[in-house]
Write a structure and sequence with these properties.
It is built from four helices and 40 strands. The chain is mainly beta.
């Protein structure tokens, strides 16, 4: 019987033969034992003959249902139940009907072991039989199972099991269609135990993935892990992120402690102590901590470890000890507050001064009790408040000021209510360090306050003792530190103002580690879940203002160079908002030694270190310790 119906001139699909255009390539190898059909988005087993000749449909169904990653060349992470037998339409979508041998054609498309024979489907023969549709002589029974033959061309490719009872029948499982990203499979065998002191290498860091991509290990290669059981982790980023997600894995590594013993020699100079002092014996891979304390009247100047000064530290710990070490502490005497001489003082600003009847505002600090600053009175009398600002010429630690009223027996202009300010730049004055009301007499008024660093002072007169509009001052004096040489600035009162990035998941890389006084901790920018690019920066509030004349950068001390800064910029600010021009720029040497950078002294309460690049060209930044010197 001729089953062909003429289509010419009907305008029907049979005449137009307009189907979906095939993508090129038709199939994409996912690299994990599967192929994705870009025409249907179905995901097929790459191995088209994993189970061999399968006698019944029930056996084929069971084989597909129990299939999972690890079997039949699969490494796609699939679990049992994810795979199934295709239905007849899905299986018939595979062959190319323009090819005579479907098995050969499927092999050319990336399948392996493709058979030019029958493959099981999940369909059964329908209850209503259109016998004219079947091949001549076919006589199926209701409930027979459908198969599809992979032959191409014009040969009918759908068959029921009763028609070919003795022919081999195979299983080609399917899942999908694919609606999301695939997860690559990672393989990482547990590494053999190592002895402390052994640096991590490809021997331990040897994870593999089912698809191409890159690995980031933590700790990285070159690290020396501490003795004990240590966790190694890896983050994998696939090359093709349009098809695959990132993946993570971890293994435990046993690090055996060595049997060698090493010595640490500790000493302290005059003015303080280090504990424990003398020679301490430490087992290889062990640790040893030290405390440094200054005697009364002294302050810690520097702690030096193996010949490198690390700044004024109150404590230091050696970890993962694998060599002999030395540590020493030095101390400086604390200087006593004294009168600050008027040498180099200059007038910065006065809101008013009497130029006709008396000399100007500079009389307030000329060292003469017989002269005085007086606001204008001859050609007008501006009302209070009045103020005077003085540039001291350099920065001091100031803890008191004194106001001497005019000494000519007249009280005109003598200040009643007042405010006194200090500033590092003469622009940002902040809160007054002292406020109050002077007694109505001609005696010296001495006002003390908590010491503050500054180069500029400002006295505001809010009222006059007799309610007049004038202000006068015979002499203004200040006391403070007589220290003239720079010293390490202690970390007391320091706090984090800002850091653009910090790693808090894969390690303790908190930004506050950069000034915790411990060389065993570090600030490290993020690397576990994302990797922000350069530049990076950290901003620190020193708690009060200092005249800063150098900063130091100590790279990480764990034997790893990841994040060590190359190019840098360093800033000082009085308010943490206006940074101006960098006080230092340059490139640090690619070593783990302390980097000390001298500066032209600048006053400020805030510092900012910008890292512009890393010594190995990586995207991270890290800091063990930041220290300052000044006064």
């Amino acid at each position: 019987m001729d089953l062909h119906a003429p289509c010419s001139g009907t305008g029907e699909d049979g005449e137009k033969q307009a189907g979906a255009a095939w993508p090129n390539p038709r199939f994409v190898d996912n690299g994990n034992g599967t192929l994705t059909d870009k025409l249907t988005n179905l995901i097929w087993m790459k191995n088209a003959n994993c189970f061999g000749n399968t006698g019944t449909q029930d056996q084929a169904l069971a084989a597909a249902k129990t299939l999972a990653s690890g079997a039949c060349g699969l490494s796609d992470g699939s679990a049992a139940g994810a795979w199934r037998l295709p239905d007849r339409k899905e299986l018939r979508s595979l062959p190319n009907y323009g090819q005579a041998d479907g098995g050969v054609w499927l092999t050319s498309q990336g399948f392996t072991n493709a058979q030019t024979s029958y493959y099981w489907t999940s369909d059964s023969y329908p209850n209503v039989v259109d016998i004219n549709w079947l091949p001549s002589g076919a006589n199926p029974n209701l409930g027979d199972k459908w198969m599809v033959r992979t032959l191409g061309g014009s040969i009918l490719s759908s068959w029921v099991s009763a028609m070919v009872p003795t022919e081999p029948k195979y299983v080609l499982a399917v899942r999908g269609p694919q609606t999301g990203l695939l997860t690559p499979s990672l393989t990482w065998p547990a590494p053999a135990a190592i002895v402390f002191g052994t640096a991590l290498s490809a021997t331990q860091l040897n994870a593999t993935a089912s698809v191409p991509g890159s690995f980031v290990y933590a700790p990285p290669a070159g690290s020396i892990p501490a003795a004990g059981t240590q966790l190694l982790s890896v983050s994998f980023t696939p090359a093709d992120t349009s098809k695959y997600t990132s993946a993570n894995a971890s293994v435990n590594l046993t690090v055996n402690a060595g049997t060698s013993s090493y010595s640490i020699t500790a000493s302290a100079g005059a003015g303080g102590s280090i504990s424990p002092a003398g020679v301490s014996a430490v087992t290889s891979g062990g640790s040893q901590s030290y405390s440094i304390a200054a005697n009364t009247g002294y302050t810690i100047a520097a702690v030096t470890v193996d010949g490198t000064s690390l700044g004024a530290l109150a404590s230091y710990s050696f970890t993962k000890i694998a060599a002999n070490h030395t540590i020493s502490a030095s101390f400086s005497p604390v200087t006593v507050s004294a009168n600050i001489p008027h040498t180099n003082w200059t007038l910065k600003y006065a809101d008013s001064q009497e130029p006709t009847g008396q000399n100007g505002a500079a009389n307030a600090f000329d060292g003469k009790n017989s002269s005085f600053w007086h606001t204008q009175w001859s050609n007008g009398a501006p009302a209070c408040p009045h103020e005077i600002q003085i540039n001291l010429g350099k920065s001091y630690s100031i803890d008191s000021f004194s106001y001497l009223p005019r000494q000519d027996g007249v009280s005109n202009g003598n200040i009643a209510r007042y405010e006194f300010y200090l500033s590092s730049d003469g622009v940002n004055w902040g809160t007054a360090v002292a406020t109050g009301t002077f007694a109505n007499n001609a005696s010296l008024k001495q006002i003390t306050f908590a010491a503050k660093i500054g180069q500029y002072l400002r006295l505001r007169a809010l009222s006059e003792v007799n309610g007049n509009p004038w202000t006068s001052a015979a002499e203004i004096n200040i006391t403070g530190s007589s220290q003239t040489s720079s010293a390490s600035i202690p970390h007391t009162g320091w706090s984090l103002k800002y850091a653009d990035s910090q790693e808090l998941t894969g390690q303790n890389g908190a930004a506050t580690n950069a000034f915790d006084g411990k060389t065993t901790t570090i600030w490290h920018t993020q690397w576990s879940s994302s990797t922000p690019a350069y530049p990076h920066e950290i901003q620190i509030n020193l708690g009060k203002s200092y005249s800063i004349d150098s900063f130091s950068y100590l790279p990480r001390q764990d034997g790893v160079t990841n994040g060590n800064i190359a190019r840098y910029e360093f800033y000082i600010s009085s308010d943490g908002v206006n940074w101006g021009t960098a006080v230092a720029t340059g490139t640090f040497a690619n070593t783990t030694l302390l980097k000390q950078v001298p500066l032209a002294a600048k006053s400020g309460q805030y510092i900012r270190l910008r890292a512009l690049s890393e010594v190995n060209g990586n995207p991270w930044a890290s800091v063990s310790e930041i220290n300052l010197t000044g006064m």
